[in-house]
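Hey, quick one: can you model this chain's 3D structure?
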Amino acid sequence: KGISADVINIHTIKPLDAEAIIKSVKKTGCVVTAEEHNFLGGLGESVARTLAENNPAPQEFVATQDTFGESGTPEQLFEKYGLNSEAILKAAEKVIKRK
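Sure thing. Here's the predicted structure for all 99 residues.
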């Protein structure tokens, strides 16, 4: 699809690697966060705060949508909650249009 992206493995929310996030968004102009977590209070919101304080940019969130957890294989759960590559691509296409 011609989309070029930085991929950053944010392994901790605290301390958050704000320097890597800011450096990336200055290059790309937008952000998609993807996490196996509720979109409330997770990585996405921490990145949004960093952007708001340093370099505001469009952002899309790929995460569970404030639902209770369920049992299943990782693949089943990723599909059910939209945490797969298709969801990330869709979020990237959406956020690129907002740059």
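One thing worth noting: The chain has a mean pLDDT of 94.
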